[in-house]
Amino acid sequence: MVKVLYIDCCIRREESRTRVLAERFLSALRSKEGYQLEQLCLMDEPLAPLSEGFFAQRERLLAEDKRDHPRFRYAHQFSQADRVVMAAPFWDLGFPALLKLYVENICVDGVTFGADENGTFGLCKASRLLFLTTRGGDYRDSPFEMGARYLEALCDFWGIPRFDVVSADGLDLGKEPVRTILDRAIVEAIRLADEF
Ligand SMILES: Cc1cc2nc3c(=O)[nH]c(=O)nc-3n(C[C@H](O)[C@H](O)[C@H](O)COP(=O)(O)O)c2cc1C
User: Can you list the residues of the chain whose pLDDT is less than 50?
Assistant: First the structure.
């Protein structure tokens, strides 16, 4: 069984166009044999930023090598997945802070990455991560796009060799109907599901 972890950061939930794209990808994946899907909806999780006591607790637990503490459950879940799918809208040239909170919580030394005298190395099992997103403007190949590019860099940090992004761009520009743009991205996503 291929364990797929789906991280849903589609803040607008049922209103979200990003979620429409993600659902079409996931239903294509579900129609294949041998995939076991685990979903994590970030809007339903008690994610907190690393600050004050929460930060201090983390430092203490890591110093004591207590990586089995429940607060590291997101990091363990992430590091054990065979494939990862993330869905989040394009916000403020990147992605919502909620997804950054998740990233902050899963970057745990000794679980998702390690460090030695040569620097850091990834410890995640996943062979690939797919990022699904929709954008108001058209940011394909734009140097101002910081969401997908940041996640791609993180994949390198986590030791995940392949990163793909499927984006529906220009949804708020009014140049083309939203449905047309979204359908194009859905076709691309379904094609990726075929070889995921
Ligand atoms: C808080 C917020 C910030 C946004 N920031 C950007 C932005 O920086 N650039 C852009 O092109 N669109 C931006 N948008 C528009 C969204 O990227 C676009 O509407 C997207 O399709 C929303 O996805 P959703 O339908 O899944 O919520 C923003 C929207 C919101 C609500």
Answer: none
If you measure from the C-alpha of residue 135 to the centroid of ligand 1, how many angstroms do you get, rounded to a whole number? 6
Amino acid at 54: F
Q: How far is the CA of 19 from the centre of ligand 1 (A)?
A: 13
Whose alpha carbon is nearest atom 8 of ligand 1? 92
pLDDT, tens digit, 9 for 90 and up, residues 30-51: 999 999 999 999 999 999 999 9
1 CA distance to ligand 1 middle (Å): 35
The residue segments making up the domain with residue 140 are 2-194
CA distance 104 to 36: 26
| Total domain count, the chain | 1
CATH of the domain at 80: 3.40.50.360
Report the C-alpha gap between 60 and 55 in whole angstroms.
9
Tell me which residue has its CA closest to atom 10 in ligand 1. 136
Tokens 């459950």 locate to: 73
Considering only CA atoms, which residue is closest to atom 27 of ligand 1? 16
